[in-house]
Design a protein that fits this description.
Blueprint (H helix, E strand, L loop, with lengths): L1 E6 L10 H14 L6 E7 L1 H12 L7 E5 L7 E8 H11 L3 H16 L8 H23 L4 E5 L1 H10 L6 H10 L4 E5 L9 H10 L4 E5 L3 H10 L3 E4 L19 H13 L4 E5 L3 H9 L4 E5 L1 H5 L3 H21 L2 E5 L7 H5 L4 E6 L1 H10 L1 H17 L2
Parallel strand pairs: 1-2, 2-4, 5-6, 5-12, 6-7, 7-8, 8-9, 9-10, 10-11, 11-12
Antiparallel strand pairs: 3-4
Helix pairs in contact: 1-4, 3-4, 4-5, 7-8, 11-13, 15-16
Length: 390
């Protein structure tokens, strides 16, 4: 099977995820029993598709999709699907769905034409083709919903408030239980070398009480490694750590520390603990993470969240989307986090390569006003809704 996708137009306000479209097109080929065939998808603008529409169909103006079956069908090449990305974007806005969902429907429609279906041959054929399209889209959505992004809550900031007074409340262990009851899929804690928030007592009790998954963030420090090996969390995330920083400021330089990090990963793997590496969304860091045997990468979303202009935020978003795709294609599992809030989370959650989002400060801050249970539920809804409209 070979699916090619060429994008010959730009939509300034939207990032078109080519690899996402390729994965969905490959799924459609498998479901229609032509996984061993080749397919070409071309995204162009309204002017170009208007010319094709006039030249091949004698119809004026742009259309959304055209199909060109290959004459030599025995050679297992289905042909070309040509889509106007501009028209698809306008249609997506009117239908209140994502551009990628609209493009997926147009690819489905075009593919069925290549396979011999034609809604212009009468009402019966039109209804049959429509029913098949709806069935395929529904099955695709169901397969995606199984993999939709999950929400993990970082409760470090609960411990920060507790430690500010040197007392026992609020308790991050109790907070973790509330988060789980509100629907969190996991709990994240960072055991720092200086114990500025989460301490040894916390991680010990959390390991005993967490019902979902415990993700222990940590530096590759000898003493912390020993604690992790004894604790056996469900996973560890290795992060850079500086004593003077308020919070983690950037991703690990995996490419520059491959030997040291590989040793830590090997120790964790021997103990049966999967390792995630917290990295900036850069190709060299993704590749290095794969090379040293990480199970996951967690993409640092801080620059995206802190962007001060739309153009800057779009640039950072593309870095994240492209890095997530690269990691996914290598076989790495992909998480993301840092700085995400109730405004910035949706677009990241909509990336279908992202398994889990780690969010802490925004939820704990929101909890001051509405309570922790509601703050978690509100964020979970954002993640859930975004995952369903990729």
């Amino acid at each position: 099977m070979s699916v090619q996708c060429t994008i010959n137009c730009e939509l300034p306000a939207v990032y078109i995820n080519k690899r996402l479209l390729l994965r969905r097109a490959a799924w459609l080929l498998r479901k229609n029993g032509v996984a061993d065939h080749s397919l070409s998808i071309l995204l162009i603008n309204d002017d170009e598709i208007s010319w094709l529409n006039q030249h091949y169909r004698n119809k004026q103006g742009p259309t959304n999709v055209l199909s060109f079956p290959l004459e030599d069908y025995p050679f297992k090449e289905l042909g070309d699907i040509v889509i106007s990305a501009e028209t698809a974007y306008v249609e997506a806005q009117k239908l209140n769905i994502s551009l990628h969902d609209r493009l997926t429907w147009l690819i489905t429609h075009g593919l069925l034409h290549l396979l011999g279906h034609d809604h212009e041959q009468g009402e019966k054929e039109a209804l049959a083709m429509w029913d098949l399209e709806q069935k395929l889209i529904s099955q695709l959505q169901q397969s995606r919903s199984i993999q939709m992004a999950q929400l993990a809550i970082n409760v470090d900031h609960v411990a920060t408030v507790r430690n500010a007074r040197g007392i026992t409340e609020p308790d991050p262990v109790a907070a973790a239980s509330i988060c789980e009851l509100a629907g969190a899929a996991g709990i994240v804690v960072h055991l720092r070398e200086d114990r500025r928030h989460i301490n040894d007592r916390d991680v010990r009790l959390l390991r005993e009480t967490i019902k979902t998954r415990m993700n222990l963030e940590m530096g590759a420090n000898k003493k912390i490694i020993e604690i992790a090996l004894g604790l056996k969390p469900d996973m560890v995330t290795l992060v850079p750590e500086k004593r003077e920083e308020l919070t983690t400021e950037g991703g690990l330089d995996v490419a520059g520390q491959k030997k040291k990090l590989a040793k830590t990963i090997a120790k964790m793997r021997k103990a049966g603990i999967p390792v995630s590496l917290f990295i900036d969304p850069e190709e060299k860091q993704v590749r290095a993470s794969y090379d040293i045997g990480a199970t996951y990468v967690e993409l640092h979303t801080g620059r995206y969240c802190d962007a001060t202009s739309e153009s800057e935020r779009e640039k950072e978003y593309k870095f994240i989307a492209e890095s997530a795709d690269e990691a996914y294609e290598m076989g790495l599992r992909v998480n993301a986090g840092h700085g995400l809030d109730y405004q910035t989370t949706s677009r990241i959650a909509a990336l279908d390569t992202i398994e889990e989002l780690s969010i802490g400060h925004a939820i704990i801050a929101r909890a001051i006003y509405v309570g922790l249970d509601q703050a978690v539920r509100e964020m979970k809804k954002i993640v859930h809704d975004a995952s369903m409209i990729v």
